[in-house]
Known about the structure:
The structure holds two protein chains of two kinds. By secondary structure, chain A is of the alpha+beta class. Chain A folds into two domains: 73 residues, Multidrug-efflux Transporter Regulator, Chain: A, Domain 2 (Orthogonal Bundle), CATH 1.10.1660; 83 residues, no CATH class. Chain A contains nine helices and eight strands. In chain A, the strands form three sheets. A three-stranded antiparallel β-sheet of chain A has the order 1-3-2. The model of chain A has no long low-confidence stretch (mean pLDDT 81). By secondary structure, chain B is an all-beta fold. Chain B contains no helices and ten strands. A ten-stranded parallel β-sheet of chain B has the order 1-2-3-4-5-6-7-8-9-10, with no helix packed on it. The termini of chain B are far apart. The chains are: A alpha+beta, B mainly beta.
Amino acid sequence: MEEDLISKKELLDTTGISYGQLYRWKRKNLIPEEWFIRKSTFTGQETFFPRREILARIERIKDMKDDLSLDELADVFSPNPADVHLSLQEVSKRNIVMESLLQLFESQHGNAKEIDFMSLLAMYVADVAVRTGDINLVEARDVMDAVETHVGKFHGKPYDLVFARKLGVGVCVLIDSSVPVHFDPACKLVARIPLATCIEQLKMTLP
Amino acid sequence: MEEPARMSLSLSGVGKASGGCYKDVNIEGVGTVEGDIECDSCMMKGVATIHGSIHAKTVHVEGKTSIRGNLACETLLLLGQIKIDGKCEVESFTGTGSYTVTDLLNAGEIHVKTQGLSKVGEIGAESIRIEKESGRTLFSRWKTLYVETIEGDDIYLENTRASVVRGRNVVIGKGCDVDLVEYETLFQKHDGSIVRKQSKR
């Protein structure tokens, strides 16, 4: 998979930010280290970025930097879980995930009083996958289970949820975002959802 | 869970300690630390060797310090020699001396006087002011910074050998040798310095 890259110079030209700002945001961990891709060109070493991700991120930073401090912004973008506990009622009131997933969660966990970030993320990821129509509610349970069980082991590394189906049976895998996955021909890749994006979106909906 | 109160590390004379979370770290004499350090203030006088990374609020170097890892802090004050084998991320870097950073030196503000041979892989900062240490010293022959690329908003350089310098305002002072300058608003050059190519963005 050849990624669509943007050079540093082009990035600064299109977004109108300066070198200083770019380095400051990198220092504050608003832009992940992995996005700085060094390549040799005929003019020497140059730095490139994944085009779609970096442009979206810089727009977001520019939008939000007047309301939030850079450190607060870093929390929004960091893949680490936020420290939140919400009750089931609150989650349902805020309309973070669809009602049927919430019921599914309730049926599995009994009447849990509070939902922490990990469980919320699990539901959110399942919600994303169900909404696109890629998976059904039964498979959503597997997704929730997988995310909830393993998300604590990622230690801030970017992971993707990969959902594949063979002969009608769905399998879900959590895998490092930078790693490609290949299946046998009978197996169909249904969805690949970056958890980092989900975490970021989820944090935005939270207080 | 409450975090236990942090202890301070103090090494005087010849000593060795392990890394970890400290309140303050104070090394005088010849000190070696095995492992990463996380602390508030880190004061190193004499010869200090850190086999790991430092994450601190303030770092103060007097004498000779080598860090076999990365350095991340808010303020770095240098009086002497520092060598960092990884990258260096600081808000403000000031002082006089010789500095070597293998990877990227990423700073908010850099205001240093080069004394002795200095080498940096790459510099990225908001404001950069690199001057030559005035006055005569034993090592006055080598007061040059060697760097691959410098990128920043406001750049002033003296005694610097660089391949590429990119910035909004670029002022090349005395004793520089730069292959390529790319500037946005302002470009000035001292007569004695060499700039092989310059272009306005």
